[in-house]
Specification:
By secondary structure, the protein is α+β, with helices and mostly antiparallel strands. It has one helix and five strands; from the N terminus they run αβββββ.
Length: 84
């Protein structure tokens, strides 16, 4: 019984860590798609902007530093800083 409980707890820990995976990225904005709430960096990386964040400062050619989370195979920008 303890072995089963230990395995279940280990599995729960792995799943919770995997779903909370986050990263940071920097680059120049190549394209902004307001309809899809998404922007593309010059290296081809696609980031979708989380609900509640404004897309107004995202401009093609600007530099951006973004924090993101992986959700359903997509990089969701949870915060970003844009500089001209």
């Amino acid at each position: 019984m303890q072995k089963v409980l230990g395995i279940a707890l280990a599995l729960l820990l792995v799943l919770s860590v995997a779903s909370a995976w986050a990263g940071e990225i920097e680059g120049k904005i190549q394209k902004v798609d307001p309809a899809d709430r998404m922007f593309v960096l010059e290296d081809g990386t696609q980031l979708w902007v989380a609900e509640g964040l404004s897309l107004e400062t995202l401009k093609e050619g600007a530099s951006v530093k973004a924090s993101y989370e992986e959700r359903d195979g997509k990089k969701i920008a949870t915060s970003f800083e844009v500089s001209p």
